[in-house]
Amino acid sequence: MVTIFMLSDDILLFFSHLHCLGCTPKYHIVYLVIPPPMSTQTKYVYVFSSSKTEGEASMKNLLGGKGANLAEMCRLGIVVPPGFTITTEACTEYTQKGKKHVLNLIKAEVQQSVALIESEMGKKFGDNADPLLLSVRSGARASMPGMMDTILNLGINDEAVEGLARKTGNERFAWDSYRRFVQMYGDVVMGLKPVSKEDHDPFEVIIDMLKAEKRVKLDTDLEADDLRELVQRFKALIRARLGRDFPTDPWEQLWGSVMAVFESWNNDRARVYRELNEIPESWGTAVNVQAMVFGNLGNSSATGVAFTRDAGTGEDLFNGEFLVNAQGEDVVAGIRTPQQITLEGSHRWAQLACISEEERRSQYPSLEEIMPEVYQQLVHAETTLENHYKDMQDVEFTIQEGKLWMLQTRNGKRTGAAMVRIAMEMLRQGMIDEKTALMRVGPDRLDELLHPIFDTEALKDARVLARGLPASPGAATGQIVFFADEAEEWAKKGHSVILVRLETSPEDLRGMSVAKGILTARGGMTSHAAVVARGMGKCCVSGAGAIHVDYKNHTMTIEGQTWHEGDWISLNGSTGEVYEGQITTMEAALSGDFGELMQLADKYRRMEVRANADTPEEAAIARKFGATGIGLCRTEHMFFEGERIIAVREMILADDETGRRKALAKLLPMQRGDFEGLFREMNGLPVTIRLLDPPLHEFVPQDEDNQQAMAREMKVSLGKIKMRVEELHEFNPMMGHRGCRLGITYPEITEMQTRAIIEAALNMKVKGMDVRAEIMVPLVGTVREFNAQAEVISRTAESVFAERGERIQFLIGTMIETPRAALIADSVGKQAEFFSFGTNDLTQLTLGFSRDDAGKFLPHYLKKGIYERDPFQSIDQQGVGLLVQMAVQKGRAVRKDIELGICGEHGGDPASVEFFHRTGLDYVSCSPFRVPIARLAATQAAIRELK
Ligand code: ADP
Ligand code: MG
Ligand code: MG
Asked: Taking the CA of residue 513 as centre, how many other CA atoms within 13 Å lie in the half-sphere pointing to its CB?
C-alpha cells in the first residue's frame, strides 16, 4: 500500500507500507522531485537581440528561414531590431488544436520576450507617451516572398499616436504609421475584403477618394490631418462592414496578429505558392515579432532591398533599390519609383530608363551619393553576410534617421543564368568547392538557358514600343491580357499570352505562371512582379512607365497609340524592351560559364546521357548539348517526310507480301540515307534504333477529303482506301497491332529496316566512321516474340555481310515496356544484349492509364494527392520503378555486361534521373534540349551518393 502526500508543487512524498507477515510494518519514505515545468515543456519562443540570442541559421525548420537568419545576423554582430520568433511547431499546434490551445502554450514566453525587447529599445509596449511599436512577420522554412502577411506598427491606438507624434516631433509620421497599421490589420487580421471588382482594395479606394477631395496626386502629398481623417474613415468602414470595433488594446492586437499569421499559412495564395513550389503543407510557418524601426521618419530615413550579386545575370555586383522616407512594403509594392543603392547601378539604370545624368542626380541619386556613411555600413553588412553564407544574399534594410538596421537576409532567388554564373564565379573566387558549385544549380532551371532568344535578324525590323527594367531575362512573345484569371482562360485555350499589369500582387500568381511573359507599368527590379518572375524563370519587364493601363476598357496606351486585349507584343526580359507584334526566336548556345559547369558536371557523373533523336539535325543538337549517343531513334518519324508517306501507304494498301515488298523496296534507300546521316553525326557513339512501333492506321488519313487525295495520288478507288482504313480501325490502338507485333505479322518490314541499318553502317564504316549500331525490338512481352524478331534481324544482317564481304559489330536488344517483359526479364536478358526501359508505355500499362486520356482525371488525382506527381512526368518510383529495379536485377543476373538504359520522357526529369542513377542504369535518354538538364541531374545524384 502506498500513501502519497503532496509537499509542494514539485515534491511528492511517498509512504510505502511494506507488510511482512508477523513483523512490524516498515515505512519507507521516498521523496520524488518533479522537475520544474519549463524543462519538460516544449520551448515555443526564441529571442534574438544584441544581448541575447537563442536561435541560429541551422534552425530553419523550427524558426523558419526569416527567424533563423535574424538570429544568425545577431550572432554575426549585425544590427537588427530586437525581437523573437514563435516556432513552426506552434503553428502546427494552431492548425491542429486552435487558437485557445496555442495561446496557452505561448503566452508566458511571449510576455517575457516582449519585456526583453522593451529593455533593449528603452520603450514600453502599450506606453501611450512613448510607445514601443512592433512588426509581426511570417516566415516559413522555405522563403515564400509576398505570400504571407506582414503587419507593421502594431501597438498604436488613438492615445499612443499622440504620444508618438510628440516624442518624434513628427505628427505626419505618427498618423501615417497609424494609418498603415489600421490598413494592414483591417485587411490581414480582421479580414476586410473587397465587395466588388471596383472595390479592389477598400482602403485604397478611400485613400483615392480623399486624394481626389484634396486635389492631390500622391500619397506623400497627404498631410497629418488627412491621415487622421483616413484613420477615422478606415475604422468607420470596418465597423460598418464587420460590425466590430478596431481593437485599441496592444496585447489584443498582438495576439490577433500572431494568430492571423498562423491562419495565413492556409490562405489561397500561400496554397498556390506551395503547390507551384512543392512545399509540404505540414511545415507550418513561424511568426517573428520585432521592434519597429522607421524608414518614414523624414529625409534621413529610408528603406530598401539589396542583392549581393545581380539576381538576373549573376554578375558579382552589389545592387539594390531604396526609397527615402518610406516604410518597408512601399518598395515591394512598386508604388513609387525607387532609387538605386550604388552609383554604378544608378548610372546603368538611368541609361536604360533614358534619364539624363542631370535628372538622375537631382531626382534619383544613389544611396552611395546621398548617405555615404550608411552606404559603407551597408556594404560592410552585405559583404559579411555573403562571406558567411557563401551564397548570394537578398537583404532588406531600413535606415532610421541615419542609422542602419538590417531586417532580413536570405539566399536570393535568381534566374537560371544567374545560378550558373554565381556558382562558377564563387568557385573561381575560392568561396565554394566544385561539388557545392554543382549542387547550387537547379537542373530544371537550365531550361531557361536553353530556351530560344529573339532572332537577331527579326529584331532589326522590330519596333520598340516602350522600355522598362530588365526584371527577368528571356524572350517572350504573346497576346496581351490584363487580368490574371483571363491569362489562365486564354492559356487554357492554347494561346500564348503576355500579362500586362500596372503592378502584380500575390493574387496574380496563377495567371503569371501560365503567361509567356509579364509586363508591368510600375515597380522596380524588386517589385513583386520582378521577384516572382525571376523565381519562375519567366521573362519579365517591369516599370515601363510609358505604358498606361486601362483595366476598365482592357486596353493599354503608349504615347497616344492604343493596344487591345489579344494584340501581339514581344518582351525582351534581358534588355527591358517591349516590341510590337510577334518576333521569331532562335536557339541559345552552350558556352562560357554554362559550358564550364557542364564540363565540371561530367567529372562527377556516372550515368551516360543519350538523346532521343530521329534526324541528323536533332542528333547534331544533341551532340552539341553533350549527348553521349542516341538512346532512341523512332524510325516511324522518317516515314512521314515528303515522298515517303506515299511508299508507306502503298505498303499498307498492298494485298499481299509481294506488294508489300515492292513498296518497302522504295523505302529502303530513304531509310538507309537517314541512318547514314545519324551514324555520321554520332561518329564514335552508340545509336539505338527502334523498329517500327506505331499502329499502321496512323499512316493513313482518317477524313474523307484526304482519303480522296490519297486515292487520286495512288490511282486506286476511294472505296478501297475506305475499306482498308476500316480494317485498320482498332478499339484500343495503344494495345493493338503495334510494336513487334507488326514485325511478327509482316517480317518483311523488319527485314527492310535491318537492311537499311546494316547497309548504312557499312557505308559509313567505309568512310572511316566508327559506327555503333544497336537495333531495338519494341513492345516485347514474351521471349519468343523477341527471338522471332532477333532471328529476322540476324539473318538479314548476315546476308548483307555476305553480299558486301564485310562485317560490322552491332547489338540486338529490346525495350522493356510491358509489365510482363519486366517480370520475365531474366529469360529475356539471356537473349537480348541490351534493355531500354520505355517508361511511357510501361507507365501506361502498369497504371492502366492511357496517357492520351489521363487529362480527364489526372489533375484531380494530383489535387487530391492520390498521386503526388504526374506519373508521366516523374516516374512512379514505388510501382513502375519497382518493375524497373526488378528487371535490372534479373537482367544483370543472367548477363553481367547487359547494357541498361531508359528512353521515356522520364529521362529528362531530374527526380527520375536521380532514381535511375540509384537503380544502377548505364544511361538515360531524353530530348536533345533536356540533355544538359539530365547531365546535371545525373551529376547531382552521384554527388548526393558520395555524401
Ligand atoms: P516578406 O516576407 O513578404 O518579405 P517581411 O516580413 O520581410 O515580409 O516584411 C515586409 C517588409 O516590412 C520588410 O521588407 C520590411 O521593410 C518591413 N518590416 C518588417 N519588419 C519591420 C520592422 N521591425 N521595422 C521596420 N520595417 C519592417
Ligand atoms: Mg521580407
Ligand atoms: Mg513504347
From this structure: 12
Assess contact for 71 and 53: CB atoms under 8 A. yes
- pLDDT in the model for residue 185: 95
Q: Tell me the pLDDT band of 5, cut-offs 50, 70 and 90.
A: very low
200 is known as an active-site residue: no
Task: From the options 3.20.20.60, 3.40.50.720, 3.20.10.10, 3.40.50.1110, give the CATH code of 605-636+669-695+738-946.
Answer: 3.20.20.60
For residue 229, give every residue at least 6 positions away whose Cβ sits within 8 Å of its Cβ, in sequence order, or none.
Answer: 210
Residue of higher predicted confidence among 51 and 22: 51
Per-residue pLDDT tens digits for 623-647: 999 999 999 999 987 887 667 888 9
CATH topology of domain 171-246: Acyl-CoA Binding Protein (1.20.80)
CA 747 to chain centre: 48
Please tell us whether the domain made up of 35-157+249-292 is placed in CATH 3.30.1490.20.
yes
Q: How many CB atoms lie within 10 A of CB 731?
A: 6
pLDDT given at position 335: 66
Ligand positioned closest to the Cα atom of 816: 3
Closest alpha carbon to 408 in 303, 309, 315, 503: 303
The better pLDDT of the pair 40, 453 is held by: 453
Provide the residue count of the chain: 947
Q: Looking at the predicted structure, is the pLDDT value of residue 23 above 50?
A: no
Query: What is the spatial distance between Cα 277 and Cα 468, in angstroms, rounded to a whole number?
Result: 28
Residue spans of alpha helices (H) in 682-782: 704-714, 718-728, 740-745, 747-766
817 is annotated as contributing to ligand binding: yes
Nearest CA to ligand 1 atom 15: 328
What superfamily would CATH give domain 302-414?
ATP-grasp fold, B domain (3.30.470.20)
For residue 134, which atom of ligand 1 is closest to its CA? 23
| Three-class DSSP labels, 526-538 | CCHHHHHHHHHCC
Residue ranges around ligand 1 (CB below 6 Å): 81, 135, 137, 145-146, 150, 152, 290-293, 303, 328-329, 396, 398, 407-408
Closest ligand to 64 CA?
A: 1
333 confidence band (pLDDT: 50, 70, 90): low
Residue located via cell numbers 544568425: 72
Comparing 133-147, 350-364, 769-783, 831-845, which segment has the lowest mean pLDDT? 133-147
Model confidence band, residue 845 (pLDDT cutoffs 50, 70, 90): very high
pLDDT per residue as tens digits for the range 100-138? 999 999 999 999 999 999 999 999 999 999 999 999 999
> Would you say 634 is a known binding-site residue?
yes
> Do 457 and 436 contact (CB within 8 A), yes or no?
no
- Report DSSP state, residue 402: T
Its pTM stands at 0.81
* CB 26, CB 3: distance < 8 Å: no
Tell me the average pLDDT across 400-425. 95
Domain ranges of the chain: 2-31, 35-157+249-292, 171-246, 302-414, 452-586, 605-636+669-695+738-946
- Ligand 3 centroid–CA 623 distance in Å is 24
Task: Please give the angle made by the CA atoms of 831, 836 and 839, to the nearest 5 degrees.
Answer: 130
Candidate from 84, 149, 152 with most ligand 1 atoms within 8 A of CB, to mutate: 152
Residue range 374-389, pLDDT digits in tens:
999 999 999 999 999 9
Report residue 704 as a C-alpha cell. Answer: 474523307
User: 35-157+249-292 and 302-414: same fold?
Assistant: no
pLDDT for residue 49 = 97
Distance 331 CA to ligand 2 centre (A): 11
| Confidence bin at 147 (pLDDT 50/70/90) | low
Name the CATH superfamily housing domain 452-586.
Answer: Phosphohistidine domain (3.50.30.10)
Residue nearest to ligand 1 atom 3, measured at CA: 146
Look at strands 403-411 and 393-400 and give their pairing. Answer: antiparallel
